[in-house]
Amino acid sequence: MKPSLLDRQKLYGLFELDPLGTVLYSRIEPDGDARGACPNVAGHNFYDEVIPFENVEEFRARIDSFAHSGIQVGNFNFTCRLDDESLSVRVLLARIRERSSGDRTKSLLVHIRKAQSFN
Fold it and tell me: What is the CATH architecture assignment of 12-114?
């Protein structure tokens, strides 16, 4: 039996990323809640090692667009694809700025949650 997208990808949670996509901090939330403990992925590349689903470059482009904008906080919905599966997520974004230089973004916070369906 093939593992599901959720079994292979620990993508729910809060991640702090540097400009290159290296995870500086993570709080992974198994199944979309914070009750279980998961491994820390700090030091790993977010796009290549943490969330390497098929359309990760599209996801990266959305985050890069936010990073290069002047917006302080943002969000978007995204459908992650892996093999024949897809998973809808909600992505919340925020900047972390260095105290010594208010104009320079030190890192980004990326919070990935289950997308809510309103049927």
Answer: 2-Layer Sandwich (3.30)
